[in-house]
Amino acid sequence: MTESRYAVAAVVALATFVTAGVHIAHAEVRPERIAWHECRTGPEDEYGAQLDAAGVRCGEVTVPLDYTRPAGRTITVAVARRTATDPVRRVGTLVVNTGGPGESLSGVTWLVQGMPPWVPGGAPQVAARFDLVAIDPRFHGRSTPLECGWPTATAQSAAWVGPDRRSFEVSVARNRDLASRCAGQAALLPYASTRNVARDLDAVRAALGEPAVSFVGWSWGSYLGAVYAQLFPGRVDRLVLDSAVNPDTYGPDASGADWPAQMAEQRNWARWAAGHDDRYHLGGTTAQALASLDVIRRAADRGRTLRVGRHRLDPNAIRRIVLGTDTEQMYAQWGHLMRLFYDAARGVPVTPTAEQDAMFDWVSSTEVAAGASAFAASLCADRAARSRDPEVYYRDIQAHRAAEPMYGPANRNVTSCTFWPTEPAEPPTTIGTTVPALIVGATGDPTTPYAGQLVMRRAMAGARLVTLRGAYRHGVYLFDGDACVDGAVNRYLLDGALPPADITCARTSPKP
């Protein structure tokens, strides 16, 4: 996920060093035994209490900040584990990563009990036969947190840009400000990469005493799994990569080619909204519903702010919102929000719901956007921005504005990585491996588009691809509840045998 998508998810929820030297340096790090303890850190720690209630134990592993200097500065990686409940038929250790990058310890519970309402029921058979393990990636969650103190309002609005030069300059200033706030963390920033998270994961593997581990990861987790397989191919058992990123472009400028998938999702929502015109009154045809959205976009292009109850909102926010979940609940949430913006754009007095009001309060808050700066640090450490000259981005926006009026400006805009205080410590990871893997994706994924998932499939010659056709969602295994997809993944995890060929699953119950 790109930096802009990270903020978007919050708005809607109302997104080389492979040499012998690296392995030698890594081998010098002696594995330590993990001292397991309860996950709850105190009476106010509800998150830890939930892990404890699910039978999870927590621990820590000390790893080098810089693996080329294993005797130098160290950081702590948080680990969670739930042991197999069917030890007689235990398969091994399955590492679960929930994406982001961000907090991931909760992934241990996803296969056990699901994550309502997004993950309906988990995978109890898999959970019974594996020790389930998760780590918080370095600088996220409980793993030596990195925090630059980004105000929520600035982090949320940094990518907003209209057609006028002033709007672009405001965006540049916001992103420059965010980057400058991380200057005090310069000693850590170059080492926030996925490559180093993969090395941390291998240190955890060693501490667990496992010769190899299995892995399932969604979104960015797919990239972590692929990078781990690239660095440590002999230490991978079963590998599942869901909603895979494009490994050739992953980084701060990856979203430039995403607009076709985003517009396809928007058309699918408009089709649905037209079928519910009695509720949302945005138009009885797909074209009419899209035209209603265009009213909001044109208000953004005119530099207008919208009065929504007691709030003044920049409608450019819609340029960053990618739903990523084609459920009735999410589509309805979007429908109510677009009706609100549509009326406000035409000067009609509107009153937000209590839920919307709370969301608008959060978006405009000066409180710290927890995790946002750590997310950016990870992205900026994986791949340098394509340019540090804002004019490169402005020209790109203008060149594509007519063809991509809705998503193009935000997709092609500067990010905090454009002005980042450090450079990556290593070149981007090149994925090219024959390690067996099962890649899972949806044809309409607007967050990590299917075209990029196919790039991952080609880069992993030993992989098989399971495609859910006709789904406009990000996150498929367990998330969609499709029996064809879940069955293929569960069989692979339990039996270890990949399908003989790629599989296409026809969605049996389209949603919504």
Explain this structure.
The chain has 512 residues and is α/β, with parallel strands linked by helices. The chain has 19 helices and 11 strands. Strands 1-2-4-3-5-6-9-10-11 form a 9-stranded mixed beta sheet, sandwiched between helices. It has a two-stranded antiparallel sheet with strand order 7-8. Helix 8 crosses helix 9 and helix 12 (286-301) packs across helix 13. The longest helix is centred in the middle third of the chain and has 18 residues, at 328-345. The radius of gyration is 22 Å and the shape is globular. The chain starts with a helix and ends in a 6-residue tail after the last strand. Residues 1-28 have low confidence and may be disordered.
Looking at this protein, list some descriptive labels.
single chain; alpha/beta; two-stranded antiparallel sheet; globular; disordered N terminus
What's the structural blueprint in terms of helices and strands?
Blueprint: H1 3-12, H2 20-27, H3 46-53, E1 57-64, E2 74-82, E3 92-97, H4 107-113, H5 124-129, E4 130-135, H6 152-157, H7 165-180, H8 194-208, E5 213-218, H9 220-231, E6 236-242, H10 259-275, H11 277-280, H12 286-301, E7 306-308, E8 311-313, H13 328-345, H14 354-363, H15 372-382, H16 390-400, H17 408-411, E9 437-442, H18 450-459, E10 463-469, H19 483-495, E11 503-506
Parallel strand pairs: 3-4, 3-5, 5-6, 6-9, 9-10, 10-11
Antiparallel strand pairs: 1-2, 2-4, 7-8
Short description:
The chain contains 19 helices and eleven strands.
Head-to-tail CA distance between termini: 24 Å
Beta percentage is 5-15%
Low-confidence stretches: 1-28
Helix content: 25-40%
Tell me the strand order in the biggest sheet.
Answer: 1-2-4-3-5-6-9-10-11
Q: If helices are DSSP runs of H or I spanning 4 or more residues, what is the number of helices?
A: 19
Radius of gyration: 22 Å
**Quaternary status:** single chain
Got a strand count? 11
